[in-house]
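Subject: for your reference before the review

Hello V.,

The reviewers asked for a structural picture of the protein, and I figured it would be easier to keep everything in one thread rather than splitting it across files. Below is the amino acid sequence we used in the manuscript, unchanged from the supplementary table.
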Amino acid sequence: MVNLTRRRLLGGAALGTLGVAACTTTRKEAPYDGRVAFQHGVASGDPLSDRIVLWTRVTPLDGAGTIPVRYRIAADASPDVTVAEGIVTASPARDFCVKVDVAGLTPATRYRYQFTALTGAGEVTSPEGRTRTTAANGTAPVRLGVVSCSNWQFGLFNAYAALAAEADLDAIIHLGDYIYEYGTTGYGNPEVVAAGRAHEPATEILTLADYRARHAQYKTDPDLQAAHAAAPWICTWDDHESTNDSYRTGAENHSEDGSEGVWSERKQFAMQAYFDWMPLRDPVGGISSAAWRSFTFGDVASLHAIETRLTGRSPNLDWGSALAGLSEPAAIMAKAGETMKAAADPTRTMMGAEQETWLASELSGATASGKAWQVLANQVIMARVKLPNLPAVMTPEQIAAQELDLVKLMIGFSALGLPFNLDAWDGFPAARERLYASAAAANARLVTLTGDTHTAWA
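And here is what came back from the structure prediction:
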């Protein structure tokens, strides 16, 4: 958990207007002529002091056409008193997902909510979810659950169950890699896959239908459903929601020969499915990569969810490609210097100029309004990270005992004293310095939350 108070921060990573999937209507809806089920739970997200996004997905078991769905929200303290309700429509255009942005709520208040599908055979009711709005002011402590990198093919989602059991969470922050794009023979534990937890579809996801199917599979997990139903979520994507090591104009895991389609189309499919299936507001103007947004938790903290993949990220550099085929120390050092010079190019960006300007303004506004902490919901490691000189600290016997090719490579590379992960902010040092400068100019007390790395660092 991350516990924030105005005077200190105790940090630790544990594991309205509708421009979205449905439109509120007051007219009487004809019931759906078919059977339906709620197979993917309910969720809420993007909490503000006076509004929140509610989400569910209605699965049509037969029949055709759109499905009218009633939503209802009530204060947790008075569950029999309806605060807001209405009818929304689940349609094939948004994969039968519905989202409603419920406004006019009370700050710092717990709510419960539920959906009901209206069918000719009767009403079908979803599970109940609980959510809460953020405080408009005050210094009450803020508790955030922080999670990232949830890969179906590596095992059960026990961390989500732990989050669902946590009392008094203000929000759960997902820092990216909510799904993984690989097929059953891609990135995963073979024993887990063989035991039956294999990706659907079985191939790498490329089309809109593929991305939607993968999201649908992940949301059948009971622990994930429980965590979504327990608290509002603030989500930001990293690369695997599209494909590995993605950037604005391409990705490491997207073939340039056309066999995996056009990158701009695949990127759009990934974003469309994400906005269909996740409890966040669509960007003004429709689906786009402009998914950055800010939240406040009383006077304790502002939280800024940034987008570092699909909008402004320059093409990635990586040591594997840079040093491929080189064995002479002089050639390796020369190529390493050339690569670091390229990484330091001030024109390289992680977020793009528009988002950099937005974040600088948000940080300044947060400190000017007295928010004690400024928290970044950020995808990849921001701190400078380089390996220790492993040949100098390991014995020859320890070096000889290493069996993994990656470890063997890192032992030799560590002697160069260079950052090893250029897919992180280390590959964009000028952009990082601009971010640091904007935080300093705003007099921000900056806390950076980071996913991606599958490891803890000290």
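For the response letter, the relevant points are probably these. Confidence is low (pLDDT under 50) at residues 5-26. The first strand starts at residue 2 and ends at 4.

Happy to draft the paragraph if you're swamped.

O.
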